[in-house]
Design a protein that fits this description.
Its cofactor is FAD. With 225 residues, this protein is α/β, with parallel strands linked by helices. The protein is built from 3 helices and 10 strands; from the N terminus they run βαβαββββββαββ. Strand 2, helix 2 and strand 3 form a beta-alpha-beta unit.
């Protein structure tokens, strides 16, 4: 069975491993130059060198909010980190790269390749991809398709009355990288999910003041540092 896998992040790599274990032929299409997906740290925001939106939301000081014991691939534990449970992003990225090498997945990955179309035919799937370096298109046929391109890459910004009149800095957490950009500023963070609270703690080291607005049962609350 020939299987197309879209994305070489954690889900795509785990899928490729299982395909190989079952004697399937996986081909992984990854639009960037490296495995890891959302765990790759990229200083740039906006568009990449191919004119595509930067995929990752990773920021420089991120640490996991789950212990590594709940984040490893089956039968492939973290090594050399017995004394810590909560890891820095680069430790997770190194682990993903070691997993890829250990199971020989790199030879099944086509990097800098964008899937532009998928069509269900009578007995198989037609997949069209673009080589981002040469700008050439090609069509391949598969027995199955696994979509593993993640769900954190497309930021959603709510329509907040008055936001277009605000003259200060506005960014989505997807584009947050380092706290130093907010040195001595008064910062408002909207949302108290994991990203909001973590970025609040990160920015509070350098900002003048940080406020976090959040809603519970349609009531507005605020936390201040």
């Amino acid at each position: 069975m020939r299987v197309a896998i879209i994305g070489a992040g954690v889900a795509g790599l785990a899928s490729a491993r299982r395909c190989l274990e079952n004697d399937f032929e996986p081909i992984v299409y990854e639009r960037s130059k490296i495995v890891g997906g959302t765990w790759v740290y990229e200083e740039r925001t906006g568009l990449d060198e191919f004119g595509l939106p930067i995929h990752t939301s990773m920021y420089k000081n991120l640490m996991t909010n789950l212990p590594k014991e709940l984040m490893d691939f089956p039968n492939f534990p973290y090594k050399g980190l017995d004394d810590v449970s909560y890891l820095k992003w680069w430790q997770v990225q190194e682990y993903i790269e070691k997993f890829t090498e250990h199971f020989g997945l790199n030879k099944h990955i086509q990097f800098c390749t964008l899937v532009t179309a998928i069509e269900r035919l009578t007995n198989n799937w037609q997949v069209t991809v673009e080589d981002l370096k040469t700008k050439t298109l090609k069509t391949e046929y598969f027995d199955a398709v696994m979509v593993c391109n993640g769900h954190n890459a497309m930021p959603f910004t709510p329509d907040i009355p008055g936001k277009d009149d605000f003259e200060g800095v506005q960014i989505h957490s997807h584009d947050y990288r380092i706290p130093e950009h907010f040195t001595n500023m008064n910062v408002l963070i909207i949302g108290s999910g994991p990203s909001g609270i973590d970025i609040c703690l990160d920015v509070s080291k350098v900002a003048n003041q940080v406020n976090v607005n959040y809603f519970v049962l349609n009531k507005l609350f605020m936390l201040s540092t």
